[in-house]
Write a structure and sequence with these properties.
This protein is an all-alpha fold. It has helices spanning 4-67, 73-98, 107-120, 122-145, 148-153, 157-168, 176-194, 211-234, 236-241, 244-265, 281-306, 309-314, 318-331, 337-377.
Length: 378
């Protein structure tokens, strides 16, 4: 016969083995989840880098379109809103209809789903639409009055504005390293242009803008920056429960109203109603609709869901560097030592910001894992 002590000892050993197995399973699940989060975040960082490159090219392309008077600025903004929203809605419907699953949705089912999602976030979608109108209209009107580099140099203010708004609304908490990374990237973006040779040979310098140009274009640039910073912050909640492409498409569709009203109010007899009167405008329209609008804002909405509004805005610090590199490839002038130094500062600031977020996330995950293990043991 087995003694009660041996039975109790065996029971204790069994309990210890079960606890050890629970600890191992919990630890493996936590590790896998943390690795998946890191992979998705780094994919978002790569996408945001591509967004900054497209934006840098858009500033150069739109400035060239304004110089050649291919079309009025607000007409180009109207086309971005209308055609861009149609492209995004078409892409979202194709993704939903062709998705394999237990229940295959029809286009009618997808439209009903969009209707439900819009009613759920109606007020926030309307706010996003008006902010998008301020962003698009302000940007194209600022580019019409100011140089491409001047518009690009102020883009690094966007993460600072977004960070202030997010902190004010208690949406994010910042560490000292994250704040230092934002400031370092902003300083690097400013030095890219401030240390550029703005002599007679460089026609894209900041010093080429006189006071009258600043009076005409400065308010539009401020509208562009403030609207986009608020847009980044306020789209976080809809992106958490709605498809990112749908969120971006609704914003542009609602922005069509304010942009159309502004276009009609500023229309004159010289306005070209037929958008294809000038042949070179084709490449401008395609770049604006497919890259600057559909691709960029779909990636931005997806990256906002995966990371945070301030992280998305922080990558706007790459815009001056991308714009300078594109101007260098177009004009053929080599980057100066100041531009190279600015690029290093931007990269260092973004890496500091990104790795500080990764460090905080890892610490939180380890804390959660430890808490889960202790609960499993108890």
């Amino acid at each position: 016969l087995k003694s009660p002590c041996s039975k109790k000892r065996k029971s204790c050993l069994t309990m210890l083995e079960q606890r050890s197995l629970k600890q191992q399973v919990t630890s493996n699940n936590t590790c896998n989840k943390r690795n998946e989060i890191c992979r998705r975040k780094w994919k978002a960082y790569i996408g945001l880098t591509a967004v900054a490159l497209v934006y840098g090219g858009w500033i150069v392309v739109s400035k060239e379109a304004m110089k050649q008077r291919m079309m009025p600025p607000l007409q180009l903004a109207f086309l971005r809103c209308f055609l861009g929203s149609m492209v995004m809605f078409s892409a979202q419907s194709l993704i939903a209809v062709q998705k394999n699953g237990p229940v295959r949705l029809t286009l009618h089912d997808e439209c009903l789903k969009w209707h439900i999602l819009f009613r759920k976030h109606a007020l926030r979608f309307i706010m996003l639409g008006f902010l998008q109108a301020g962003n698009i209209g302000g940007n194209i009107l600022a580019v019409n009055q100011l140089s491409a580099i001047t518009v690009a140099i102020f883009q690094p203010l966007m993460p600072i504005l977004a960070g202030v708004v997010a902190a004010f609304l208690n949406l994010e908490e910042f560490s000292i390293f994250q704040a230092a990374g934002l400031l370092l990237a902003a300083c690097g973006a400013a030095s890219v242009v401030a240390l550029t040779d703005h002599g007679a040979g460089g026609g894209s310098g900041v010093l080429a803008d006189d006071w009258d140009a600043w009076v005409r274009g400065g308010p539009f640039l401020a509208l562009n920056l403030l609207s986009l910073a608020l847009y980044f912050v306020l789209q976080k909640r809809p992106c958490s429960s709605c498809p990112p492409v749908f969120v971006a498409g609704v914003g542009f569709l609602i922005a069509l109203g304010p942009i159309s009203a502004a276009f009609v109010c500023t229309m004159s007899d010289s306005t070209q109603w037929w958008i294809f009167n000038t042949a070179p405008s084709w490449y401008v329209i395609c770049y604006a609709v497919f890259l600057t609008t559909a691709f960029n804002y779909s990636v931005i909405a997806w990256a906002t869901r995966e990371t945070s509004p301030t992280t998305v805005a922080a990558f706007q610090a790459l815009q001056p560097l991308c714009t300078t590199l594109i101007l260098w490839m177009v004009n053929g002038s080599l980057p100066t030592l100041g531009q190279a130094l600015g690029g290093v500062l931007i990269a260092a600031g973004l890496l500091l910001f990104v790795f500080s977020i990764s460090f905080d996330t890892s610490a939180d995950s380890e804390h959660s894992a430890g808490r889960a293990i202790s609960e499993a043991c108890n």
